[in-house]
Automatic annotation (TrEMBL), chain A:
<keyword id="KW-0732">Signal</keyword>
<protein>
    <submittedName>
        <fullName>Menaquinone reductase, multiheme cytochrome c subunit</fullName>
    </submittedName>
</protein>
<feature type="signal peptide">
    <location>
        <begin position="1"/>
        <end position="22"/>
    </location>
</feature>
<dbReference type="InterPro" id="IPR036280">
    <property type="entry name" value="Multihaem_cyt_sf"/>
</dbReference>
From TrEMBL, chain B:
<dbReference type="Pfam" id="PF01568">
    <property type="entry name" value="Molydop_binding"/>
</dbReference>
<feature type="domain" description="4Fe-4S Mo/W bis-MGD-type">
    <location>
        <begin position="54"/>
        <end position="110"/>
    </location>
</feature>
<protein>
    <submittedName>
        <fullName>Menaquinone reductase, molybdopterin-binding-like subunit</fullName>
    </submittedName>
</protein>
<keyword id="KW-0732">Signal</keyword>
<dbReference type="InterPro" id="IPR006657">
    <property type="entry name" value="MoPterin_dinucl-bd_dom"/>
</dbReference>
<dbReference type="GO" id="GO:0051539">
    <property type="term" value="F:4 iron, 4 sulfur cluster binding"/>
</dbReference>
<dbReference type="GO" id="GO:0043546">
    <property type="term" value="F:molybdopterin cofactor binding"/>
</dbReference>
<dbReference type="GO" id="GO:0016491">
    <property type="term" value="F:oxidoreductase activity"/>
</dbReference>
<dbReference type="InterPro" id="IPR009010">
    <property type="entry name" value="Asp_de-COase-like_dom_sf"/>
</dbReference>
Length: 201, 742
C-alpha cells in the first residue's frame, strides 16, 4: 500500500511537471487546429498585394522573385532588405504608408528586419526546397502558386501570420505516398522517397 | 525486499505512464517552435552568398609549422570546416587531424577576449599606453621579444619594430624543433633543410624521423609516402625501415621496425657503413677509416641490434638505389645528437643519395620575410639573460615557455625577474598567466598574415629548384569578439607610437600587407602591367604565390673527420632513459585546449584524455608493474605521476611519456589533463648546437600502489598478444628476408 502511495505521488509530480512546463511557454507551442500560433511580425507583410491575382488588386509576382533561393538551395531565403528597397524607392504612391515607412527605417539604419519564423522544422529534419521546386515547378511545369502552396497554403491571399499546414512527419509522408506524374508530358507516376535518411540526416 | 521497497519494476511502470502522459499531451501536434525564432534577413547580400550553400575561401593552416594551404568552408558567414587546398604543392588538398581541429581553436570558449593588465580587463588604448610608458627610458638592449617560428610580413613588421626600439633581442623558440638536424644538414649537404624525396627512393631508412606523424611537414610526406608504396611505379614498391627506441606512427607503418638502444643511432649508422664496405660497396677513404672500428659484433652489442640484422640492412641498402636515410628527432635528442645526425648523414653520401633523393632547396629572395626557425638554444640564451636581470621589458608571442621549458632551466622564476612582461595570447596559458599585460589575439581564422614555410616543396618541372612559396592567411569569418586584434595590427599600432609619420599611410595591417605585396608584384609572379586590384583578388583566391627563389645546391660534404660517438654509460640511480614522445596531434601542447585532439586516440596506444608512460613488458615485469598502475617517474629534475601502459614497441632500457599534456592553465580542456613531461627534464645540451637534449634524462620508476582502468579504444581481447601462449607463428619477424620483400 505504502509504495502505491509513493507511486501516486510520483505520478502527480510528473503530470504537474509537464503541465507547468506547457504553461510557462509563451506563445503556446501547439494549437488545437494543428497550425501553430498566430505570430506577430515586425512588419505585417502583405503577401496578397505582391503575389495576389490581378483581379484582387495583386501584382502576381512570382514567389521566387523574392524567395530567390528556393530553386537552388535548401532554404527559400528571406529577401535582403535591399531587395524590398530596390522596388520601393521608385514607388512613390505608397511611400507614406506606415509599413513602408517602417521598412525605410530599417534600411536607413542598415538594420536587418527581425522576421519571426512561421514555418519551423525541428533541427533533426532536413527539408530541401530546391528538390521540390525543381521537381514540381521546372520538371512538371505546375503553376508556382500551386507548388509553393502545397506546404505554405494560399499565400497569395494573406499576410503570413500562421502556418497553414501541420508540417508533421505524418503530413509529409501522406504526400510522399501519393503517386505523382514524373514529368509534365508523361503519364508515368512515382512516389516521393520514403527512407528515413532522406529527411533525417 | 529491502525496507525501502521501491523496486525497479515499479519504477519502470511509472516511467511508462510518464511516457504516455507526454505522448498524450502532444497528441497530433508537433513541437515545432513557430514564432520562437527570428529569421533575420541580410540588409544587403554579397553576390556570392546563397543561404545554406557554402563558399570556400583559401587560407593557410596555422596549427603547425608546415603551413599547409587550406580552404575554409564558410556558410552564412561562419567557418564550419577546413579542407586542404587541392592546388597546393605542399598538401595537395589534404590535411591532418591537427589541422582540422583549427576551427576549435577559433570557436574555443576559453579565448582571451579583452586586454588584461594584471588580470583586470582594460581598454586597448590604455593597454598600448601602458606599453609606451614601460618602454620609456628603457634601453633597446633591455627589451626582448620572444616568438615561435615566424615568417612573412608580420615578421617584417616585427623586424621594423625591433629596429625602432634599437633592440637585437629577437629570440625564436620552438619546444619541438629539428634544430640539430638543420645544423648537421648544413654541414653535410650545405643546406639546412634539403628536399627529401621519399617518393623517388626505393628504400627509406629512417632513424626516428616520424614523417607520417609529427616531423617537419607530415601531410606532404604522407603523400610522398603514398607514391613510395605504389607497386606500379617504375622503381617498384619501396621498403621502409624505421630504427628508433620508441615506436612512432611511422615506425608502425614500416616494413621493418628495429628497436635500437637509445642514443646509439650514430653507432648503428657507422656499423651499417662498415657492413656496406664489407659487402663490396666503394666507401670514401676517410669514411672507411672512421667506420673501421665499428665492426658488426661491436655495433651489435652497443646498439642491441642483431649482427644478422645489420648485415641484412646493409644488403638491402646496397641492392636498392636510390635510397634515402633520414635522421629524426629520436636520434637528435642527445648530448651527442649532432654527432648522431652527422653519422647518419654519412650514409646518404656513401650511398650516393645526395642530389638524387636529397635535393637542393631554394631560398627566399626577401630576407625580411624568410622564415625564422625556432630552437631551444635561443630560449636558453633568453633564460640566461633573464636570470642575470638583463631584460626589463619582455614580449612573447606564439610560445609558451613557462610550460615547455625544461624544469632544470627554472624559466618561470627567471621570467618573473623582468619588470614588465607582455604576452600576446589567444589563451591564458601558463606564460600569459605569468605576464603583466595580456593582449588578446585574433584566431588564425580571423587574421591576416603571409606565411613562408621553411620546408617548401619543389614542384616537378623546369626551373623548379628556384621555387619558393608565399602563402596567404585571410580571415574566414568576422571576428567572434570585438576586442581581439591581429598581431600585425598590434605591431603596427606599436610602430605608430614611435614613428607615426612613417606608417600613417597604413590604416591597418591589411593595408600594409596589400601594399607590400603589390610593390613586389613582379617578383611574386605577376606582370608589371597587371591591374593591382585584379592581381590582389586573384592572389587571395588562389591562396598562395610562387616566388622566384634563389636556387640552391646540395653537395655531398658529409665528412667523418671529427666524429665522436660515446658509448652509453649506465646510470645506476636513474637506469631508464626517458623519451618524451611527440604525438601528431598534441605536439608541444599549444593545441591542448582543442577537445578533438584530446579525445582522438593516440594511434599506437589508443589512449584518450590523459598521459601515460610506455614501458616494455619485460621491464615492467621486472618492476612488478601492470597496465594501469599509477607510477612515479622520477628524474634528477622532477617527478610526474601517471598511468603505466605496457607497450612492446619500446626498447627495454627506455620509457616514454607524450609531451603536451599536463597544463596548469590555458583552458577547461587542457588544464589538469595528464602530466607535463617538460617539468622533469634535465638541462643537458647538445655539445655542438646547444640544443636541449630531449632524450638525455635518466629516470627511475616506482609504484604508488594506486591503479586505474586506462581509458582507451583498444579492447582487452586481442589488444595485446604479449604473454599469450599457444600462438603459432608462421614466420618469425626476424627471419623474414627483407631484401626480397616488397
Ligand atoms: S601538417 Fe596538419 S597542422 Fe600542420 S599545417 Fe598541415 S594541415 Fe596544418
Amino acid at each position: 500500500m505504502q509504495h502505491i502511495l509513493r507511486l501516486f505521488i510520483l505520478l502527480v509530480g510528473l503530470f504537474a511537471g509537464t503541465g507547468s512546463y506547457a504553461a510557462d511557454a509563451a506563445p503556446k507551442l501547439t494549437t488545437p487546429d494543428d497550425l501553430g500560433p498566430q505570430i506577430e511580425q515586425p512588419i505585417e507583410f502583405p503577401h496578397f498585394r505582391h503575389a495576389g491575382d490581378a483581379k484582387d488588386g495583386g501584382m502576381q509576382i512570382n514567389c521566387m522573385y523574392c524567395h530567390t533561393y528556393a530553386r537552388r538551395s535548401m532554404v527559400a531565403g528571406i529577401p535582403p532588405v535591399q531587395k524590398c528597397i530596390g522596388c520601393h524607392q521608385s514607388i512613390e504612391s505608397v511611400r507614406d504608408k506606415p509599413r513602408i515607412q517602417k521598412l525605410f527605417e530599417y534600411w536607413d539604419a542598415k538594420k536587418p528586419i527581425p522576421w519571426k519564423k512561421v514555418h519551423d522544422l525541428p533541427d533533426f529534419v532536413r527539408f530541401n526546397h530546391e528538390r521540390h521546386i525543381q521537381r514540381f515547378y521546372f520538371q512538371q511545369d505546375r503553376p508556382y502558386q500551386e507548388v509553393c502552396g502545397y506546404c505554405h497554403g494560399n499565400v497569395k491571399a494573406m499576410t503570413v501570420a500562421q502556418r497553414q499546414k501541420p508540417l508533421t512527419m505524418g503530413w509529409c509522408a501522406s504526400c510522399h505516398q501519393k503517386d505523382h506524374p514524373v514529368s509534365a508530358n508523361s503519364t508515368e507516376t512515382g512516389h516521393g522517397p520514403n527512407d528515413c535518411f532522406t529527411c533525417h540526416k | 525486499m529491502t525496507e525501502n521497497d521501491f523496486n525497479r519494476r515499479d519504477f519502470l511502470k511509472v516511467l511508462g505512464w510518464g511516457g504516455t502522459a507526454v505522448a498524450l499531451s502532444g497528441c497530433g501536434n508537433t513541437s515545432i517552435q513557430d514564432g520562437q525564432e527570428t529569421v533575420t534577413s541580410y540588409v544587403t547580400l554579397p553576390s556570392y552568398v546563397i543561404p545554406s550553400i557554402s563558399n570556400y575561401f583559401n587560407s593557410t593552416c596555422a596549427q603547425c609549422e608546415a603551413g599547409c594551404n587550406i580552404m575554409g568552408r564558410v556558410r552564412e558567414g561562419r567557418v564550419l570546416k577546413a579542407e586542404g587546398n587541392p592546388n597546393s604543392p605542399i598538401n595537395r588538398g589534404r590535411m591532418c587531424g591537427l589541422g582540422l581541429s583549427g576551427v576549435q581553436a577559433h570557436y574555443n570558449p576559453d579565448r582571451v577576449r579583452q586586454p588584461l593588465l594584471k588580470g583586470e580587463a582594460i581598454a586597448w588604448d590604455k593597454a598600448l599606453g601602458v606599453i609606451a610608458d614601460k618602454l620609456n627610458g628603457v634601453k633597446g638592449a633591455e627589451v626582448a621579444f620572444l616568438t615561435g617560428n615566424m615568417s612573412g610580413h608580420v615578421q617584417a613588421l616585427l623586424g621594423n619594430y625591433m629596429d625602432e626600439l634599437g633592440s637585437k633581442n629577437h629570440f625564436s623558440y620552438e619546444a619541438i624543433s629539428p634544430a640539430v638536424l638543420r645544423a648537421a644538414n648544413k654541414k653535410a649537404y650545405g643546406v639546412s633543410m634539403p628536399r627529401y624525396r621519399i617518393d623517388k627512393a626505393r628504400v627509406v631508412v629512417s632513424f626516428g624521423a616520424d614523417f607520417l606523424g609529427a616531423w617537419v611537414s607530415p601531410v606532404h610526406f604522407s603523400q610522398q609516402y603514398a607514391q613510395f608504396r605504389k607497386g606500379n611505379r617504375p622503381e617498384g614498391r619501396g621498403v621502409l625501415v624505421q630504427i628508433e627506441p620508441k615506436m612512432t606512427l611511422t615506425g608502425a607503418n614500416a616494413d621493418r621496425w628495429i628497436a635500437v638502444r637509445p642514443g646509439s643511432e650514430g653507432v648503428l649508422a657507422l656499423g651499417i657503413i662498415n657492413a656496406l664496405g664489407k659487402a663490396g660497396l666503394a666507401i670514401p677513404a676517410d669514411i672507411a677509416a672512421a667506420s673501421k672500428a665499428y665492426t658488426t659484433e661491436r655495433v651489435s652489442s652497443e646498439t642491441d641490434v642483431s649482427a644478422e640484422q645489420i648485415e641484412k640492412l646493409a644488403a638491402l641498402l646496397k641492392e636498392r638505389t636510390p635510397s634515402l636515410v633520414l635522421a629524426g628527432s629520436a636520434a637528435e635528442g642527445y648530448a651527442h645528437g649532432s654527432q648522431n645526425a652527422a653519422a647518419i648523414a654519412l650514409l646518404n653520401r656513401v650511398l650516393g643519395n645526395v642530389g638524387k633523393t636529397v635535393e637542393a632547396s631554394a631560398s627566399v629572395p626577401f630576407p625580411q620575410i624568410a622564415p625564422t626557425v625556432g630552437n631551444r638554444a635561443s630560449l636558453v640564451s633568453l633564460n640566461d639573460g633573464l636570470a642575470a636581470g638583463k631584460y626589463k621589458v619582455v614580449f612573447s608571442y606564439g610560445v609558451n615557455p613557462v610550460f615547455s621549458a625544461p624544469a632544470a632551466l627554472k624559466f618561470k622564476d627567471n621570467y618573473a625577474k623582468a619588470d614588465f612582461k607582455v604576452a600576446f595570447a589567444q589563451y591564458l596559458d601558463e606564460t600569459a598567466q605569468a605576464a603583466d599585460l595580456v593582449l588578446p589575439l585574433d584566431s588564425a581564422m580571423e587574421d591576416w598574415a603571409t606565411v613562408v614555410p621553411e620546408y617548401m616543396v619543389t614542384p616537378e618541372g623546369a626551373g623548379s629548384a628556384a621555387y619558393a612559396q608565399m602563402s596567404f592567411r585571410q580571415p574566414l569569418m568576422d571576428k567572434l569578439y570585438p576586442d581581439t586584434r591581429g598581431i600585425g595590427d598590434i605591431l603596427l599600432a606599436l610602430l605608430k607610437q614611435r614613428k607615426a609619420d612613417k606608417y600613417k599611410e597604413f590604416d591597418d595591417f591589411y593595408a600594409y600587407l596589400r601594399s607590400a605585396v603589390l610593390k613586389n608584384k613582379v617578383a611574386l609572379g605577376g606582370k608589371a602591367t597587371d591591374d593591382d586590384d585584379a592581381f590582389w583578388d586573384e592572389t587571395l583566391s588562389k591562396g598562395f604565390l610562387p616566388m622566384k627563389g634563389i636556387a640552391g645546391t646540395v653537395s655531398a660534404k658529409a665528412s667523418a673527420s671529427d666524429l665522436k660517438l660515446p658509448s652509453a654509460a649506465a646510470d645506476r640511480d636513474y637506469p631508464l632513459r626517458l623519451i618524451p614522445s611527440i604525438s601528431a596531434s598534441m605536439r608541444d601542447g599549444r593545441n591542448a585546449n582543442e577537445p578533438w585532439l584530446q579525445e582522438s586516440p593516440d594511434p599506437l596506444t589508443t589512449i584518450v584524455w590523459d598521459s601515460w608512460v610506455e614501458i616494455n613488458p619485460k621491464t615492467a615485469a621486472k618492476l612488478g608493474i601492470v597496465e594501469g598502475d599509477i607510477v612515479e617517474v622520477t628524474s634528477r629534475s622532477g617527478t610526474i605521476r601517471t598511468q603505466a601502459y605496457l607497450f612492446p614497441g619500446i626498447h627495454p632500457d627506455a620509457v616514454s611519456v607524450p609531451v603536451g599534456y599536463g597544463h596548469e592553465a590555458m583552458g577547461r580542456y587542457a588544464k589538469g589533463v595528464g602530466a607535463n613531461v617538460f617539468a622533469m627534464l634535465d638541462a643537458v645540451f647538445d655539445k655542438e648546437t646547444g640544443e636541449l637534449a630531449l632524450n638525455e634524462t635518466g629516470v627511475k620508476i616506482s609504484k604508488t600502489g594506486q591503479r586505474v582502468l586506462i581509458v582507451k579504444e583498444e579492447g582487452p581481447v586481442g589488444g595485446s598478444q604479449a604473454g599469450k601462449k599457444k600462438i603459432a607463428v608462421q614466420v618469425a619477424a626476424d627471419k623474414v628476408d627483407l631484401s626480397k620483400e616488397v
